[in-house]
Design brief:
4 strands, 10% strand, alpha+beta, 7 helices
């Protein structure tokens, strides 16, 4: 379902600030997924991610599929503290960790968000227009709506497919009626699971 003619083309031209609403949804889903708080640059954060990615054969296979393709010998050296990963490998570890974490919690989050057909209340906080000249400012209100079908949104998020996530999210917010385009860019999207 393509809605390109109604999409914002020159967002921010007059000073409005915000992010794509699907990016705000992805950030909120990441928060709900609960990642390791210690940064990967700290030894504790690195070890926690490596243990998460190597604790089972299934986890190792998922990590390899997510792009962490180092030998078992290298992993053992990293876990034992004999060697440190390069900056490029740190990025690969972080990417693999986030990808595997998303896949592992997607089913749980989907059940919590769908709530057996009752759905979840979502708050859309409008874009920031404080830098827009007064005559060009639009009246964009805080809105909330209940989303009952999260399947496509969570699937696209777990797969890391931004385009599919954008389309799935737009399919949900069209319930706002003719105003849905005003929420293509937002400051935040809030919901709980």
């Amino acid at each position: 379902m393509s809605r390109v003619p109604e999409r914002n083309i020159d967002f921010g031209q007059f000073g409005a600030r915000g992010i794509k609403s699907f990016e705000a949804v992805a950030r909120q889903l990441d928060k709900l997924a609960g990642h390791i708080a210690t940064p990967i640059t700290a030894r504790r954060g690195l070890l926690a991610r490596l243990h998460y990615l190597t604790r089972t054969d299934h986890a190792r296979a998922a990590a390899r599929a997510a792009g962490l393709t180092v030998t078992d010998r290298t992993l053992k050296a990293w876990l034992g503290g004999k060697r440190l990963p390069s900056r490029k490998n740190l990025e690969r570890i972080e990417t693999a960790y986030r990808t595997v974490r998303r896949q592992n919690v997607a089913r749980y989050l989907l059940g919590r968000l769908n709530r057996e057909g009752r759905g979840t209340r979502v708050e859309l906080h409008p874009l920031n227009q404080s830098q827009v000249d007064r005559p060009r400012q639009r009246i964009v209100e805080y809105r909330s709506l209940n989303i009952r079908h999260w399947d496509a949104v969570v699937r696209a998020w777990a797969d890391g497919d931004d385009q599919a996530l954008d389309e799935a999210w737009i399919d949900q917010i069209v319930d706002l009626g003719s105003q849905w385009g005003q929420y293509e860019y937002v400051t935040t999207v809030g919901f709980a699971a």
